[in-house]
Every structure is written in C-alpha cells, then in structure tokens.
Amino acid sequence: MPPRTTRRNLLKFTGAGGLLAVAGSFAQSAEARVRLGSARPFSFDDLREQARALASKPYAAPVISDADLLYSIDFDAIQKIRFRPEDALWKDAPFPVQLFHPHRFAQKPVRIYLVDAGQAREVPFSTDLFEYGDPALARRLAHHRGFAGFRVMDPAPAKTDWLAFQGASYFRSCGPSGQYGMSARGIAIDTAMPQPEEFPDFTAFYLERPVGDSVTLYALLDGPSLSGAYRFVCRRGDPVVTEVHAELFMRRDIGRLGVAPLTSMFWYGENNRQRAVDWRPEIHDSDGLAVWTGAGERLWRVLENPPVVKTSSFVDHNPRGFGLSQRDRNFDHYQDDGAFYNLRPSVWVEPLGDWGGGAVQLVEIPTNDEIHDNIVAYWTPRQPVRAGTSWTFDYRLYWGNDEPFVPPVGRVRDTWKGRPGMAGLSASQVAALPPGIKFVIDFSGGPLAAIEQRYDLDAVVTASRGRIDDRHVLKVVGTDRWRASFDLYTDDASANDPIELRCYVRLGERVLTETWLYQYIAARSC
Known about the structure:
The protein folds into 2 domains: 4-24 and 32-400, Distorted Sandwich (Beta-galactosidase, Chain A, domain 5), CATH 2.70.98.10; 411-524, Sandwich (Immunoglobulin-like). 8% of the residues lie in helices and 40% in strands. It has 6 helices and 34 strands. The strands form 5 sheets. It has a 16-stranded mixed sheet that branches. Strands 3, 7, 8, 9, 10, 11, 16, 21, 24 and 25 form a 10-stranded antiparallel sheet that branches. Strands 27-28-31-30 form a 4-stranded antiparallel sheet, with no helix packed on it.
C-alpha cells in the first residue's frame, strides 16, 4: 500500500489518464490507437467464481513490471504526463472515462475491461494514449502492462471528474460540490490491530457504457487474506449515490474485518484549537462520526487528533446507517481558498439487508499535518471471520453536503472546550479550581427551531469518570442555536486515561437532540 501521505494527494497529483476511443460498443473509431483484446464471456456470476477460485489457492502477489522505472515517476514527473482526452472511453456517452497512468505511488497493475452484451474485452496499456514530458520515458515503457485505475468525467465541455478508483481498493467522489475529500475502500483488514494492516487490491475493473445518470462497473479484489467480487452502480446527482454489492471469500482467519470503510482527515478544529500551528483556523475533511443505531438513537461523535491511536466501538445490531460528516460549511472557519475544506463531501453508509450484530468502529490516529489520512470508520461483524467462509454485504454510499437522513431532533453544530468556572475569574481564582475543563456544545434544528427562549431545558450529561458541574442550556440570542455547557472535573492520578462523555438536551421527558459523544484526555487540556 502506498505511504499514508499519498492516499490524500494521489488524485491531486495524477492528472494523467490514458484513454482509448471507442465508438458504439466494441467498434473502434478511426481515432483508436490500439486494438481491444479478444472478447470473452462476462457476468457477475463469472466474477464471483473467479474470486472464489482465487481464495482457494495461496495468494500470489502481483508482479510489477518496470518497478524501478515506475518508482522514478514521482509527483513532479506525474505532472508532465497527460492523458489524451480525445481518446476517452465512450467520449460520446454522458460520462466519458479516462485511465490513470501508473507511477511511484500506484505501481501495481490494474487491468481494465469493457463490457457489452455479456462480453468483455481488455483495454491494453499503450504509451500512445498519453502525452509525456519526457519522450525517453515513453520509449522505456513501450512494453508495460496495466493502468493505475480510472476516473469518470463530467459531460463535455467540462474537464472535471466526479468519480475515481485508484490505489489498493480506494475510491472516491467529489459529490455535488465538485471538491474531492475523503475516500471509501472496498474493505479494511486489521485496522489498528497489533499486526500490520492489510490493503487488498482491486486488480481488474469491468466497465459498462455509462447510461443516463449512472455508471455500472465490476471489480475483482485480491489480497493475502481474502478475495472478492464487487458490483458498483454509481449515480451522478445531489448527492452522488454509489450502490455496492460485495461477495467476499476468506483465505484465512481475519482478526478485524472492516465493512464499508471510510477514510478521512482531522488535524484540528474548534474543539482542539491548541493544535493549530498553521495560520488557518481549522483543517479537516470531516468533523464528526454520525451513527443511526438499529434502535433508532442518533449519535454524533466529535472527531479528535489523539496523542496515541484510539479505537472507539459503538456496539449495535442492524445499524440504520453511519458516516463521516463535514457539518461545518462556513468558509470563514477554514479560510482555505486552495483545499476548500468547507466544500469537502460528507459520506453516509446505508446498510441494505441484515447485517446482524457487530459494531461501528472509529479509529483516530495522531497526525501533525493535513497530508495524513488519520480517521477511519467502518462496520465490523461480531461473528468471527474464519478461513473458508464467505460473506455478502450490500450498502449505499451517499456523497453529499449533508447526511441524507436528517434526524427529527436537534443536531450538534459546534463543540468548544476551555477552562472551567465562570467567565471573568481572576488568575488566582482559576488556579484554585480543581483540574477540569468546560465543554460548550451548540445544537440546532428539529424541535429546537420552534422553541422560544426558556430556562427549563436540561442538559443530560454523563462521564465515565470525573465530576460534572455547572450544567446549563440557553438559547443563543439572535440565532436558532441552543447552547449546552458543563464543567468536568477530573482526578490528576488518571489524567492520561480517556474519559467518555455523553450529552443530550431534553425538555421534561422529551428528547430534543441527538446524543453528543466525546472522548476526552485530561492531559491534553487547553
């Protein structure tokens, strides 16, 4: 798997895709530079059996031809390789497809096939499909095989893409905003476990001609622990919806199987502003994990940049959905006119069918820069994953500006923390306070929108340890927000142990908001 630093920047730096012009189905146009491979029967059943057969044999790592040469194609060299847009696959279809050139950070060969009327034909790699800044490089790659992936373009004359598959089993969409951010993966294996994480690869893609607002494709997955067959139906809209069908076959036991994994970045936000060494006020692709439990509870877990790797589990049965969200859409909160973090898409996972018992897990990894993807979320089944078993999962991914199923309760908008006690205390008064921290949480929406200022709303707060004091809920004057605040006092002796916090607002017995969750480490107090 490429280094963690390249996961975020891979597509940013790979402005190179080579494309074969195809008229109609398999008929080649006069512009075609190479011939398609021979036709052979194809169906999802065939792909499933191919994956099953792979899993019955020892894993064979892909052979990387021209490895030294590909390693020389670094970020700067990638910029000098350009795909030829006139050679796009289905350039007369609603969404032309372009292919990515291999390079240092995507060396493993990916085979691309076109599917029509139950037949598949391979698109061979050819340097004629690319413009090279270095002609000598093109000559040395004349006999190379395999692409690095592909991207699906917006209709002409636009020159932008909205969907891309590249690197291991990673894929992503820009959503309706046109701004790429976090990624999804085909599967996660042993994330944040004592043994190294495994990154299986999509080794072959089978693409059908885009029709209407959708693109259908199939993928073969292979890795040391499993193989799999995937079908993706991707619809361009607001939000972009990707429907996934995955059938997995286990070569060996897996300690932690991560289904529908999402990968994002959180460096700092308003809740950990002491980490802000950069001039920009906030830097993150996502600011929270949203969970809709099988029992109907709505959770919002604020993301953190912890001092050590942290894994949080939300045990559930048949969850209704979960996702990593970028709720803060205010440009002023980021002031980034290059990365445009305020436009990064949120991604929601909607399980289809019976997923049974298990847990939504959130992994937070320390980072000191925005180039590292340090946030992972996925579903892990409770049932052990054993060699020789097979698993099937169906789900939808929604890439949009908001969660697709907005809860009928108030939602968390912002989280801050600071010193405890009343505002305006003197330095000596603050020093006399026991170790602690103040949390301030803004909620809005749902039934809160119809409630005028009153003073009988209650913040229900629980902590895994420590003492809660000074709880208040008040409407923020001139806004539609209600602000809950409380002080948490802790014991110095266990300052390095995380404290799990929960908070929601109610009126009498009526719950008015989702449940705010936070993992606080007292040693990191601001």
